[in-house]
Amino acid sequence: xxxxxxxxxxxxxxxxxxxxxxxxxxxxxVAFYERYYSRGAGRTAPAAKQRAANAGRVRFNLETKIEAxxxxxxxxxxxxxxxxxxxxxxxxxxxxxxxxxxxxxxxVLAQEKYPSIRTVYLVGSPAQLLVENLPPELxxxx
Length: 142
Hints:
The chain is mainly alpha-helical. The protein is built from 5 helices and 3 strands; from the N terminus they run αααβαβαβ. The protein folds into 2 domains: about 1-60, no CATH class; about 60-140, no CATH class.
């Protein structure tokens, strides 16, 4: 068990270090990790300085999971983007986060409302690049 994971679980009153984190807890853990190795209990650990520096450069690759064929099983694309991008902005992590998805609706909304957050269009086949809601600049040229 990592001492920093145990310390984080204790500090955040989690029942276990193995709890599946929510997005905010993920952001909090990376910030905690950086503090732990830069000025906390881990500051004297081997490679503490490098660990803290690495934590300060972590990039978050966040994939939206929306089931377009079953809209009653998930929130709307607009709500998903509002919650996801809102957390990114509140934590000032726009330059360190990517939002990726096979569902282009969330990416188009994210680009419109949060242009400072990078979006990544995932495709399973070239045919997906022909969908109506794909931004024109991403459409293949003939």
